[in-house]
Amino acid sequence: MATCDTRGDDDRNSFAMTQHGRSVVVGIDGSQAALDAAAWAVAEASSLGVPLRLVHVSEEKRACRSTVDTVARDAELIASAQYRVEMTAHDLGRTVHIETAVVHGRPDCALIDESRTAALVCVGTAGRGPCAHIPLGPTAAALAKHAHCPVAIIRSGGVPSADTGWVAAVQNDDPDNDAVVHRAMEEGRLRRAPVLLIDMRLDSWIRRYPDVHVRTVAARRAGTRRDDSHGDSIQLAVVGSADAEHLARLVWPNYHPVLGDAARSVLLVRR
């Protein structure tokens, strides 16, 4: 089986530290999940001040379909996604420059290549893979393992409205945890959503006193509203590179505080 050229993976962290990348890339395949990912990515591109690049990967071998039909279908997919992005940007009151591209090859390889010069790569998911126990498809899994920039895996079902659903992250002792928490806070600000931080640090005060029930709430300015319940309403789980292998192996770790639900969008942070 052919494999992608992933040379340069050892340099992905230093690459991701560059300014912002040239664009926010969204993989477009004609599915509703891909359109939802494109709509979700509008705020990301607008906040970074970079173009939103819609990429459709046309596999070169399409049985029983002429070249003319293929080109027409590819153009239709891109046009539909562009219209959805324009409507979303209008509704959000945001300005975003849209780029479109049709490339040929395997979707995973093409999007990994796009990630070399991207600020973020977004793909959509219906929340399940080809089997009940496999939450991701092969393209999302390959990006989790090999992408050179952060990866967003966006659950289909529409873009959450403001103030609905938490942005969740774990505080732990991983080397990139500060970057994970920072990105979660930025996403909370961007999406006007509350942030849920789950403290799993080995030397935290909570672990030192396991017999004491502790609830930590950050103080806010007087007069501002605080949502004290989160339940199952997490709209985005922000995770670090330690979880990339689980996603790449198509494993959704049930033990993980914010990855326990496959019907959840995930933002994988690369430091």
List keywords for this structure.
alpha/beta, 271 residues, Rossmann fold, 8 helices, nine-stranded mixed sheet
Topology record:
Layout: H1 12-16, E1 24-28, H2 32-48, E2 52-58, H3 67-92, E3 98-104, H4 107-114, E4 120-125, H5 138-146, E5 151-155, E6 166-171, H6 177-190, E7 195-199, H7 205-208, E8 234-239, H8 244-248, E9 265-268
Parallel strand pairs: 1-2, 1-4, 2-3, 4-5, 6-7, 6-8, 8-9
Antiparallel strand pairs: 5-9
Helix pairs in contact: 2-3, 4-5
Fraction of residues in helix: 25-40%
Give the biggest sheet: 9 strands, mixed
> Mean pLDDT across all residues, rounded?
80
| CATH superfamily caption of the largest domain | HUPs
**Class based on secondary structure composition and strand pairing:** alpha/beta
Oligomer designation: single chain
Classified by CATH, the class of the largest domain is Alpha Beta
Number of strands: 9
Strand coverage percent: 15-25%
Give the second-level CATH assignment, the architecture of the largest domain: 3-Layer(aba) Sandwich
Low-confidence stretches: 9-19, 219-231
CATH topology of the largest domain: Rossmann fold
N-to-C SSE string, H for helix and E for strand: HEHEHEHEHEEHEHEHE
